[in-house]
Task: structure prediction
Amino acid sequence: MEITYKNNSYTLGKKERKVEGEAPAIRVKMLNDEVKVIGLMAPSVQVMITLNDVNKYDSDLHQIINSTKRKVFPYIITSSANEIIEDVAEKFALDRGFISNDFVDFSNKFGVNINDSMLANSIFVIDKEGVIKYKEIPTDLDDDFKMEEFSITLNEVVNFKPKGHTHENWMGV
Result:
């Protein structure tokens, strides 16, 4: 996949993650120095937001994330410097345990790596089973995300109720 930035074209890393495919597990060092393994199965839905410039995190994105806050682990992975991240974290009262600029391994495994100093902007929604349910990678680093589409899909994934047998039905209770 090609990404454009300031009239230059970049080819993303070879790994391409597909919707309904399994998310990889990645060890990432967060801004608060905590090391977390993210991706794969988790007790909550995970939202992986990669931003080449963390200043692209805006009030629209923040509002969507906050609308599902108790049911979602939102991770922001960026190539921005710590000082810039701190400004954005303070502005939006973001938990530094969910923000990282340790992006190279993450971006390689999710197929959004441009090079060792840049990554593509993207959003991945991963359900509790570790399956990618939504993926968006704008083709230009200056383009915005499709907020309405992201919001609708995130709410569907968060509020998904599995169908089929329940323990009580199976036992004849």
User: Anything to note?
Assistant: Residues 147-158 form the longest helix (12 residues). The mean pLDDT is 90. The CA atoms of residues 103 and 167 lie 42 Å apart. The chain has five helices and eleven strands.
